[in-house]
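Weekly structure sync, notes
Attendees: PL, DS, HV (note-taker this week)

Item 1: 4-hydroxythreonine-4-phosphate dehydrogenase
DS walked through the input record. Source organism listed as Acinetobacter pseudolwoffii. Sequence as pasted into the shared doc:
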Amino acid sequence: MLPLYVTSGEPAGIGPDICLSLAERVDERPIVVLADLNMLKARADQLKLSVALIEYTGQDASSKKGQLYVEHVPLNQPVALGELNPNNAAYVLEQLRRSADYAMSAKSVGVATAPVQKSVMNEAGIHFSGHTEYYQEFAGVERVVMMLATKTLRVALATTHLPLRAVADAISKERLHQVIDILIHDLKSKFKIEHPHILVCGLNPHAGEGGYLGMEEIEVINPVLESYRAQGINMSLSLPADTLFTPENLKDADAVLAMYHDQGLPVLKSQGFGEAINITLGLPFIRTSVDHGTALSLAGTGLAKSSSLHVAVDLALDLARH
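Item 1 (cont.): predicted structure, written out as C-alpha cells:
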C-alpha cells in the first residue's frame, strides 16, 4: 500500500514535535515522516517520548502504535531549539521536493505538511512564498486554490498571500473563473459533493452597497457568478462578508469563497483553531496541512498541540480512499 508522506518542516520549530505524535496512531497505510533521523531521536529524548523510529525503505507495512516510519533527510547543521538557521533552509526545501516528487510519480498517495518559516527560507536566498505556491510550481499547474476547513466550515480563497493594497487589482474575471472551476471540480471529485452549494463574499464592505463602496462586485464579481448560476450551479451572488458567516447562512453551504486571506480565515480559525486544516485544491495529488505556524518558542517544551496535524493526516487518508 502506498505511503502518505508528512514533511516535518522547520527543524527549529514544533514540526518535529508534532510529527513524533504520529507514533500514537494505528493506520492501515504507512505514514512516513521526512526528517533528519538523528534530529528526531534527539527531539524525542528532549520530550521524554518512547518512540521506535524506523527508517523507511519502501516496506509495505501499516503504521503501528509506538512506531514511526522516517525517511532520512540530512540536516546541513545541528538544530538549536527555537533558533532559525538559514543554513538549514535547503533541508526544508528538500523535504518539499521529495514529497512533491513522490506524489507526482505515484510513489505516494499525497502529502501532509508541518509548518515552515518563510522568512528564513528567503533569508537563505531561496525565493519562497509558501507551500501552496511551491507545490503549484512543481506540479506545473496554472492555478491552485487554498482552502481551509474545520469539521463544519470550508473557506476557499480567491487570492492568498498578497498585500491588501494588491488584492482588488488581482481579482479579475479570469482569476475568478479559474478559482471557481477548481473549487467546484474538487468539491465534486475529492469530497464527493455532487451538487455543491457555494456562498461568495463580496470584496468591499456591504458587498459594495450598490456601487457606493466600490464597483468590483458590479463590474467583475457578480457577472462571473451569474455565469455559473446560469449553468445551474448553486452559487450565491456576492454577499456582505460581515453577515455571510452567520449560522443561518452557513447551515446548507458546502463552501465559502472569500476574496482575500484575512476576510475568511479569521472566522474559520476562531471556530476551530488547532482543529482546522489547509487543503490545496487544483493539484494532481492530495496535499493537506496544519493551520498554524512554527511556534518556535514551544519547540521541545511538550506544549505544542498536534491536533491539526492529525486532522490533516485523517483527511489526506480519507481522500486517498475515494
